[in-house]
Design brief:
Elements (H helix, E strand, L loop, with lengths): L1 E10 L3 H12 L4 E5 L5 H5 L2 H18 L14 H11 L6 H9 L3 E4 L1 E4 L4 E5 L5 E12 L3 E3 L15 H5 L7 E5 L3 H12 L3 E5 L10 H13 L3 E3 L5 E5 L2 E6 L2 E5 L1 E4 L3 E3 L31 E3 L10 H19 L22 E4 L4 E6 L2 H6 L4 E7 L4 H6 L6 E7 L4 E9 L6 H9 L4 H4 L12 H9 L3
Parallel strand pairs: 1-2, 1-6, 2-3, 6-16, 8-9, 8-14, 9-10
Antiparallel strand pairs: 4-5, 5-6, 7-15, 11-12, 12-13, 17-18, 18-21, 19-20, 20-21
Helix pairs in contact: 1-9, 3-4, 3-7
Protein name: Dihydrolipoamide dehydrogenase
GO molecular function, one term: dihydrolipoyl dehydrogenase (NADH) activity
Family: Belongs to the class-I pyridine nucleotide-disulfide oxidoreductase family.
Length: 470
């Protein structure tokens, strides 16, 4: 057994852990990352990057097909081999050498192995060869272990060896037919991708698609998927079995067979075997934190990213990480902590200003409070809708453009608290809405934010005209 002493120990070297470490190092502290898998984590190798690489080619192809003049130049379909090769380039062929090089260049230490908390400010790391290293922290330990797929309790499912998102995004041989259980973001995005890869897709979504979003978002995506040939089953499987002919999925509506089955029914905290019990927390639970990412009743333990269950999105986890790294450095040096709302050391945006894009076809981009949530929160909200297809820039973007925009407005404060856009290429509209919400820009002032013509952004003017002049 060997020992090491650091100012900060970060358990988990994914994008979130890397950001914590980088900010703390910039604040003058010594930091070590501990990672049992690939440095760079889920987003780099099995989630954000490879999944979007799988989706992008198909979106581009269909965009061209909607443009006379360009459409005639398209003489073939998706080249699966080339698409998968491009996907591989974004994962560096699942080699983390480049990420390790960045860690070293940033002045961050790295320990390979499985980390477990071993009491206050202490972490043990067990390497593949069984060697145990004990790390001690002068100031903080940060848990950034992320989340794992959550498997539903369906008889036979475990024995059927279902795919998780990892297998789906790292696919080498595309199955002829593909079943997906779950109608959330992962289910919708993988249905979109596997259609383009040439698979026959069946999607099981008992409660419909994209629950939690505005209703029209799931409805428009469902309509588009059905038109492209996806079978959508509005019931839950009652049994799953892998046979010589493939995976058989039994439901109240009948039996379905697919070559492979993907489980996309949510996430669970990756905290089962990281020693939470040694510091009075429950293994397997999400870790509750305050807005500086500090675990209550401690002055040294932090949790960032998926593991705190505030917003299971990479960009939001990195935002939390920046705040946490900065506040750890400030506290270590006895500097003033700016923990007021929207201060430098807090993740205020987690509360009502979280942006998210579903890379489906059409895309769904949303931020802030949905209309149904505003009502539940007792907010006197005005809901404003506009057909994006009526905007000149959208009609230029694609013939027959179909899209929808919605703003949710706090009548009392006269500011936007939520925005949703559905349609081709709407992801790039989202940051303007995010800025308006975070900045609490008055509706009256937004009239002076003039959108360029002819762009899809002109929908902002049309939405304001629908609201009417103050």
């Amino acid at each position: 057994m060997t020992e090491n002493n650091w100012d900060v120990i970060v358990i988990g070297a994914g994008a979130v852990g890397e950001n914590v470490a980088d900010r703390a190092v910039q604040g003058g502290l010594s930091v070590v990352l501990v990672e049992s898998e690939l440095v760079g984590g889920e987003c780099s190798y099995w989630a954000c990057m490879p999944s979007k690489a799988l989706i992008r080619s198909g979106l581009a192809l269909r965009a061209v097909e909607k443009l006379p003049g360009a459409a005639e130049a398209v003489t073939g379909g998706i080249n699966v081999e080339a698409l998968l090769a491009r996907r591989n380039s974004f994962t560096s062929n699942w080699d983390d050498a480049g990420q390790v090089k960045w860690v070293k260049k940033a002045g961050i230490g790295l320990e390979r192995g499985h980390a477990r908390l071993a009491g206050e400010k202490k972490v043990t790391v067990t390497a593949d060869d069984g060697t145990v290293t004990t790390l001690t922290a002068n100031h903080a330990v940060v848990v950034a272990t992320g989340s794992d797929p959550k498997l539903p309790n369906i008889p036979g499912l475990i024995d059927a060896k279902p795919w998780t998102p990892r297998e789906a995004t790292s696919v080498k041989v595309v199955p002829e037919s593909f079943a997906i259980i779950g109608g959330g973001v992962v289910g919708v995005e993988m249905a979109t991708a596997y259609l383009d890869l040439g698979a026959e897709v069946t999607l099981f979504a008992r409660s419909g698609l994209l629950n939690g979003q505005e209703d029209f978002a799931g409805e428009m995506v469902e309509k588009a998927l059905k038109e492209r040939g996806v079978t959508i089953v509005r019931t839950s499987p009652t049994r799953v079995e892998r046979t010589a002919d493939g995976v058989v999925i039994e439901t109240p509506e009948g039996s379905f067979t697919a070559s492979e089955i993907l489980i996309a029914t949510g996430r669970a905290a990756r905290t089962n075997d990281i020693g939470l019990e040694t510091v009075g927390l429950t293994p397997g639970d999400w870790i509750r934190v305050d807005d500086t990412m500090l675990v209550p009743d401690t002055d040294w333990l932090y949790a960032v990213g998926d593991v705190n269950h505030r917003a299971l999105l990479t960009h939001q986890g990195k935002y939390q990480a920046r705040a946490a790294g900065d506040v750890i450095a400030a506290r270590a040096k006895g500097e003033t902590v700016d923990d007021a709302p929207w201060g430098a050391h807090v993740a205020t945006a987690d509360h009502g200003a979280v942006p998210q894009v579903t890379f489906s076809d059409p895309e769904v981009a949303s931020v802030g409070v949905m209309s149904h949530d505003a009502e539940k929160q007792g907010i006197d909200a005005q809901v404003v809708d506009y057909n994006i297809g009526w905007v000149a820039g959208a009609s230029l973007q694609a013939d027959g453009y179909e899209g929808q925009a919605r703003l949710v407005i706090d009548r009392e404060r006269q500011v936007i608290i939520g925005a949703t856009f559905v349609g081709q290429d709407v992801a790039e509209l989202l940051h303007s809405a995010t800025i308006a919400i975070v900045g609490e820009v008055p509706i009256a002032r937004l009239w002076h934010a003039v959108p360029s013509y002819p762009t899809i952004s002109e929908v902002w003017l049309r939405l304001l005209e629908t609201i009417g002049r103050p």
